[in-house]
Task: structure prediction
Amino acid sequence: MRRRANSDNLWTVIFAALVGLLLGVGVFTFGYGKGHSYLSNDPRACSQCHIMQDQYDSWLKSSHHVHATCNDCHLPHHFAGKWFAKADNGFFHSWAFTFQDFHEPIQIKQRNLAILQHNCVSCHETLVAHMAHDAATGEALSCFQCHHSVGHGARAAGMPRRFPLIETGGTP
Result:
């Protein structure tokens, strides 16, 4: 009986040590990577990764610089969606940069393109409501089909000219 209690205590100590190690590495990484800055609305946070410097520099020169931050275009505007997208992007960006597993130049993911498209249409709704879908194909028109240089200059991020059909009525 005593031997089993010692064995249980050993596993408890090992488990606690592993949890402590993971928490310690997480806190260190968050601090070292200036993770707190990603909780803000400051576009400079996005340029902390060298791969995003070109996007940040081109945004500074874009027409949207005075009207929109990175979060205004690249994240949903409702509370839960914004923080879910930040967590999702943060995890996958951390993974990609840690293991050097990303396309260069960096490319936006399809799920983030849908958010971007939704935010373009949302901000410019009065101007674009009548041209939301291509009459011939039924596809949702991409704002970038005509406005590919808005936001980040030249089409260096692999943005498609058209999106797949975007369902209406919901937010991404």
Notes: Confidence is low (pLDDT under 50) at residues 155-172.
